Amino acid sequence: MSNLKILVVDDDPVTRSLFTKRLEAAEYTVHTAENGLVAVEKIGQQFYDVVLTDLMMPGGVDGIGVLEASKQNNIKTEVILITAHASVNNAIEAMKKGAVDYLQKPINFDELFLRLDKIHNLKMLVKNASDLREAMDVTEKTSAETIQDLEITVAELKQRMDAIKAALMKADVDAATRIRLAIEALSK
Question: Where does the Response regulatory domain start and stop, copy by copy (predicted)?
Answer without folding.
Answer: 5-120
